[in-house]
Specification:
Elements: E1 14-15, E2 26-28, E3 36-37, E4 40-43, E5 46-48, E6 54-55, E7 72-75, E8 79-90, E9 94-96, E10 100-108, E11 116-121, E12 141-146, E13 160-166, E14 172-182, E15 191-200, H1 204-227
Parallel strand pairs: 1-3
Antiparallel strand pairs: 2-15, 4-8, 5-8, 6-7, 7-15, 8-14, 9-14, 10-13, 10-15, 11-12, 11-14
Length: 228
C-alpha cells in the first residue's frame, strides 16, 4: 500500500482556555466548523511531523455519525519518518464524580499498526503533558490502551465503541486525554479516527444507590476482617 499525504487538512478548531469552569457533561461529535470549546491539542511527536489532529478525511473512511468528515483524525505524519508519535487531544475540564462514564468510538485504517491511550489528569484545567514524546505530565492515570503491543490488526478497523466508569477520583476536576502513541513510524502508524465522545455523571438517584452499595460493601469487608 502506498502511503499518501492528505492533500487537504481541515484543522480542528481548538479553543484553549475558552471554558472558564468545569462541566458535568460532554457530547462531542466533531462536526465540521463547530468550535471545540475548552478542548486542546498538543503534539509532542519527535521529530515533528506535518500533521496534528485534523478534521476527518472521508477519503480514508467516513465518520461514525454525522457528516462523513465529522470526526477527529490523526495519522503517521504526526511525526517525521522513523520518529515517535505522541499526539494529544485533551477534553475540556470536567467535574469528576464517582460512577461517571466516558464513552467514545474509534477505528484505524488498518494498513499499519496503530495505538491509542486514554489518560486522565486530576489537576483541574492543566494542559501539562510534558515536553517529550515519552512524557505524560499530569496525565499519569492510564485508563485504557488500544493495541499496546502495536500488532498489525490489533486496532479495530471498524468503528468500535469503548466505555468505562470512573471511580476513586470523586470531588476533583480534570481532563481526559486521547494520546495517539506510536513508535517508529518507518514500520508503524497509519490513520485513526475518534468520534462521539460522551461524558456523563450519574443521576442523583443512581449516585445515591452507588454510594449506599459502596458503604455496605466496605462495612461487610470490615466485619469479615474483624471476625478473622
Amino acid at each position: 500500500m502506498i502511503r499518501k499525504t492528505l492533500a487537504t487538512l481541515l484543522l480542528l478548531s481548538i479553543a484553549v482556555g475558552a471554558q472558564a469552569v468545569p462541566t458535568d457533561s460532554l457530547d462531542e461529535g466533531f462536526d465540521v466548523g463547530a468550535p471545540l470549546t475548552g478542548w486542546a491539542a498538543i503534539n509532542n511527536s519527535s521529530p515533528g511531523g506535518t500533521t496534528g489532529w485534523f478534521q476527518g478525511n472521508p477519503g480514508v473512511f467516513g465518520a461514525q455519525s454525522g457528516t462523513p468528515d465529522s470526526y477527529a483524525g490523526a495519522n503517521f505524519e504526526n511525526a517525521g519518518f522513523g520518529g515517535n508519535i505522541s499526539n494529544w487531544l485533551l477534553t475540556p475540564e470536567l467535574n469528576l464524580v464517582e460512577g461517571s462514564t466516558l464513552s467514545f468510538y474509534t477505528r484505524s485504517n488498518g494498513a499499519f499498526p496503530d495505538r491509542l491511550e486514554v489518560r486522565l489528569s486530576t489537576s483541574g484545567a492543566s494542559l501539562d503533558v510534558g515536553a517529550t514524546d515519552a512524557s505524560v505530565g499530569a496525565f499519569t492515570t492510564l485508563w485504557l490502551t488500544l493495541n499496546p503491543a502495536l500488532n498489525l490488526g490489533g486496532y479495530a478497523s471498524d468503528w468500535t465503541q469503548y466505555s468505562f466508569s470512573i471511580f476513586g477520583v470523586g470531588g476533583l476536576t480534570g481532563r481526559f486525554a486521547f494520546r495517539y502513541y506510536v513508535t517508529d513510524t518507518s514500520v508503524n502508524g497509519d490513520y485513526i479516527g475518534i468520534d462521539s465522545v460522551v461524558y456523563r455523571i450519574p443521576e442523583p438517584g443512581t449516585l445515591a444507590l452507588f454510594l449506599l452499595a459502596s458503604a455496605s460493601l466496605a462495612l461487610s469487608l470490615r466485619r469479615r476482617t474483624r471476625i478473622k
